[in-house]
Amino acid sequence: MTTPPTLAKIIEHKRVEVAEKRSQRSLDELKARVADAPPPRNFFSAVATGLGPGGVNVIAEVKKRSPSAGEIRADFDPVDIALQYENAGAVAISCLTDDQFFGGSIDTIDAIKASVSLPVLRKDFLIDTWQVWEARAAGADAVLLISECLSEGQMMDMLILAHELDMTALVEVHDIENLLRVRRHVGFPHPGYMLLGINNRNLTTMKTDISHTVRMLELVDDHRDILVTESGIRTTSDIERMVRHGIRRFLIGESLLRQHSPGQALRELLGTPWD
Question: N or C: which end of the chain has fewer CB within 10 A?
């Protein structure tokens, strides 16, 4: 059995990738494209105050493979999957754009937004503000910032830039140390632009435990209205368990993508009937 790459290995590769991309596309070129782009859709509002089925707001994920799961979906059509999610009641789309480890592409964001009315998150390993500009130029409405990948200074710079570009930042944490580091910056630089995600997957071991979010709750009681639980949600019982703890915002992908119809799988997961 092949051991999945650790976060450190992914970041090592990402540094090389970003340096190569920066040499091919200048920041001025990205800024010019952003200046001509339509304004972002409101990802924060969709997730924090949206009206998902049964009061549950799902960011539904589009990805072809992952380091921990390998190939998830052979017949991968990201636009069709995103349309299925929208019709099934998702409030937003998460789009994996990493190519090396997830089989994604930055161009997928624009393709999805051309067919779907939901806001779209660029999910990738962001380590440089250049990537935030790249995300906005590609049509992303929000960016994922993984606290385990970033220093405090880098995090602040990206939060400020995302706000300046009218984008939402979904700031993800896994361990307690990083949660405590991020918690004091919730709402920076302005409320309404930042969501807090707790990843149930340990990015070092790639193991998943949905109890992880529940264990972290006492440290984020003041921020439950912007809290998103990520990874490992597979059943209606998982949803119901989180709702009992006051958690109503989810990022879900692999369990849906493994089904013949991801849209139907999402409907069944949320317990919503077919039209």
Answer: N
